[in-house]
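Hello,

Following up on my earlier ticket. Below are the three sequence lines again, exactly as submitted.
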Amino acid sequence: MTTQTASVPSQDTMTGPLVSVEDLTLELDTPHGTAHILRGVSMAVERGQTLGIVGESGSGKSMLLRTVLGLTPGDARIGGTMRFDGQDLSAMHPEARRTMLGRRVGVVFQNPMTSLNPVRTIGTQMAEAVRFHQKMSKQQARELAVDLLDQVGIVKPRQRLRDYPHQFSGGMRQRVMIAMALTCSPDLLIADEATTALDVTIQKGILDLLQRVQEERHMSMILVSHDLSVVAGRTDDVIVMYGGRIVDRRATAELFSPPIHPYTRALMLAIPRLDMDAHTRLPALGGNPPSVFDPVLDADAADERDGRRWSTISADAADPVEFRDGVVPTDDTVEPLNEVVPGSEIGAVGTLSAEQQAGVAEGGDREVASGTLFEEIALGADADEEERR
Amino acid sequence: MTSQLKQDPGPRTQGFNAVIRPKRWGTSLPLVPRLKPRRPRKANRGALWFAVAWLTVLVLAAVFADVIPGLPAYDEKIGAFAQPPELSIGGLLGTDGIGRSNLSRIIYGARISLTIAVVSTLIGLVIGLVVGMIGGYYRGAWEATANVIANTLSALPPLLLLLALVSAIGASLFGITIALGVVIADLYIRVTKGAVIGNTNREYVLAARALGAGDFRIMTREILPNLVPVLGSIIPMAMAIMIVVEGSLSFLGYGIPAPTPSWGGMIAAGADIMRQFPLVILWPVVTLFLTVFSFNTIGDHLASRTDVREAKL
Amino acid sequence: MSITSEAPTRSGWLREDALLTVEGLHCAFKTASGRVHAVRGVTFDVRPGETLGLVGESGCGKTTTGRAVLRLPPPTAGRITFRGQDMAGLSMSALRRERRNVQMIFQDPLSAFNPRRKVVDIVGEGLEIQGVPRAERQERIAEALDQVGMSLEAVGDRRPHELSGGQCQRISIARALAVGPDLIVCDEPVASLDVSVQARVLNVLQDIRERNGLSLVFVSHDLAVVKVMSDRVAVMYRGRIVEIGPADSVYRTPSHPYTRRLLDAVPVLDPSERSWERSQADDDAEWRTVDRALVEVAPEHYAALGEVVHDGERVP
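Thanks for your patience. The regenerated structure is below:
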C-alpha cells in the first residue's frame, strides 16, 4: 500500500496558505433584485491544517466553496481575490483553473448517489478520473483504484470495482467518493456536508477516515457542516458563517474561550446535549437570517443589525413572523432584549430561566463565557479522561 | 473527483435554483425564494394573446355562423371548383373541390371539429380517470384490471377499433366522439395510473388518512388535484390528435356524413386534388395548425401558472 | 388481522396504567426483493403524559413502528391497545373515529401537505372530515395555530411553499393538534431543520405537550434530540428493541453494546456529555446477527442480553 503525499508546492509559496480568499463577494441578478450571496468573505486554509466551516442554511458556506472551485452560474458576479497555492484564481482562464483545481483539490459532496453515475461501474469511473489527470495505462489505473478502495476501508476492493453504485450502502458510497477524490493525491480535500445524510455510527467512521487520510497524506482539509459538534472535534480552525459573511473565526481549541461570539454561542446553546434532562427547553434564536436581497452593509453595521437578532435567544416557543409579499422575510418585530456587542465580554442575557439552563452552567452566561463548561476541549483531549464523571 | 469539478454551471435558470436553494431546506428562510418569475416571459405574451384571440374568434364564428351576413351555406355551390380566393365573403378563401365556399365550410366545420375535440377528450378523460385512479389507488387486482383494459385498447390498431365502434354505434357525431373517446382512453388510463401511484405514497395522503379521511375523499380531494398538471400537459396534444383522426375516418368514409364539413374531412377530401389545387387543402390545414397551437399555448400558460412544482425540492 | 402475542405472560416492562400498549408488533412488507420484516416483535407502552423516544439508525424499523401505531398500514401481527381498547377489532368507521385520538407529525413538512392547499384548510382538514361546523372549525384552527405560535390572520391564506421549513413543521403540529388527540407520534419532526429552527420546533412541541397533557412517541435518529424530549427511550436495531428504559438510565448507563456504540458515535461538543466508560466488550458485535430476549438491568431498564431468541444473519 503506497501512501501518496501531496504534490510538492511551488518553491516561493511554501510558507503561504494553500487557499486564501480576500474580500470575496458573489452577486446574482434575480427578478427580485440583486442577491448578495457572499459579502466580503476573507479566509485562508493553511497547508496540512483542517478548517471547519459552520453555518446554517443560506449562510453561504456551500457557495463559498463553489466560488473558489469555479462552479458558480455563468452570470454570477465575483469580486475580490482567490488564491490557490499563490496563484490568482480569478486571473486564470476558467479551463486552466478547472484543470489545476481538478488535479489538486478533491471534493466529497453530500449526496453520493447523485455524484456517482448510476449506470457505470465504480471501477470505470475511478479509472476515468485517474487517467484524466495522469498519464497511466488502464492496468495501472485499475491498480491505483484497488489501492485507494483498500485505503478507504472497502473490503475485497478488486471485486467491488465491478459493482455499480447502487450496490453499495450509503456509507460505502461515501467511502468510494472519498477514494475518487483522492485519485490524484490532492493537496486539499473538501468535505461539503459529507456525512449529513448518514447514520451516526457510519458518520463517525467516515469522519475518522477523513482524518486518517488527511494525516497520512499531509493534506489540507475543509470540513463544511451545519453541525457545530462535528466540526468542533475534528478541526484546527473554525469559521462561522452567517448571512453571507464570516462572523466568527478562531482556533477550534478556543471555540469556548471567552469572549464567545454571540452567534456561535447561540448555536452552541441550541444544540441538545446527551446529558440534558427530559423536557428541557433549548434556548434558540428568534427571527430569521438577513435576506440575500438586503444591500451590502459594512461589517460594523451588519454586526449591529445582526447583533440585535443574536441577543434574542430565548426558550419561548415561537415567534409570529410577518410576511412581505414574495420577499424573504426579515423579522423586524423581534424585540432586542440585550444589546450585545460582538467581541466584548458577554453579560447575562437575562431571559434564561433556571429551567433553560439545563445545558448551561449555573449562574448564567458568565460561566459559559469563562469556559467552565467546555474547559476540557480547550485543555485538549487528554483532559477528557479525568473530567469524565 | 473530476466528474464533479468538470461540471458546467448549466443554463441560467438552473444555475439560479441550484445556487440559491439551500441544501438543508428546513430553515428560517422560505424554502424556495421565488426566483423564477411566475408569469411567462415577455416573448410569449404575444403568442398567448394570439391564441386567446384566435380561439375566441373561432368559437364565436362557429356559434353564430348562421347569422354571419353573406356567408353561404356550407353545402351551397357558389362557383366553379377550386377557385382561388376573391374579394367576397363567400369566396374569401376560395372554393373546394365541388365549388362550395371554403370559408363557410371551415366555420361550420369548426363546430364539428371542436365538438369532437372537446367531447371525445372528456369521454376519454372520464374513462381514464376512473379506471386509472381505482387501479392506481387500490393496486393489486384492480391495477391488473386497469392494465388489461389499457393494454387491450392500445394493442388493437386504433383505426380498426374506431371503424368497428363507428360501425356499431353509427357514423354520427355521437358515435364518432364516443369511438374516439374510447380509443384515446388508454393514454389517459396510463398517465393517471402512473401519477396516482406516484402520489399515493406521498406523506400527505398518509396524513389525510391519519386525520380520518376515507378513500373517496383522498382520491378526490388529495390526489385528483395533483393530477391536473400532468394531465394538463397532454390534453391539448390529445385534442389535436382527435381532430386529425376524425379526418382519417372521413377519408375512409366513416366520418361525419357529407355534406356536413369537418376540418379533418376537408383535409381528406382536399388530399385528392392536392397536386393541382393546393389551396383547397391549405385552409383546413392552417386552421387546424393555428387551433392546435392555441390549445398548446394556453395549456402551457395554465400549467406554468398553476404549477406548484417550485415548492418541491 | 391475526392477533398473536409472543408469550402468555405480559412482558415485564409493560405497565398497568398505560395509555398505549404495543405487544409483539410484527410488520412485514412485500418488496421487489422479497418479504422484508421491518419490525419483529416490538413491545412497549406509553403512559398518559409521557414521552417515549424511539431511536435507531436507518432501517431499524422505528418509523414503521410509529406508523403501525396509527395502523398505517395495519401491522402483520401483534396487539395495539389504546385506552384499553384493542385497535384491531374495530370496524373501518370506528377506526376512523378512533383516529382522532392518535395523530402523527411527519419529517418532511412539504410532502406532508397537499401543496395546493391553503394553511387554514390544511390545519382544518381533520375537523372538516369529522364534520365540525365551520364557525367552530375556524375557532379551533385559530387556537391550534396560536398554540404553535402562529396567527391565523398572518398565515391562514398562505400556501406551504411560501413558508419556511420551521413554520411548515409548526403547521404540521397545529394540524395534528386541531383534532384534539391524546397521543401524537412524531416521526423525525426536526431531522432536516437547522439547529435554531430545530430548537424552536422542539420548544413548541414541549409547549403543546404540557398545555394539552399529551403523550408523545418521538421517533428520531438523533440521540441528543431524543434525550431532551423523552422520559423513556427505546433503542431499536433490525426491527427489535435492544434496550428500553428511563432516558437518564439508558443514556448514563447503557447496557447493550449497540446502545453504547450509538452513544459513542454521536459527535458532542463537550465530552462530559458521555458519562460511561468504553470497555473491551463494546467491540464485540454479536448483536448484529443474534437476537436476544430483554432482561432487566436496572429499575425499569431492560436490555437485550438474555437468552437467544433468534440466531443468524437471515431474519425470519
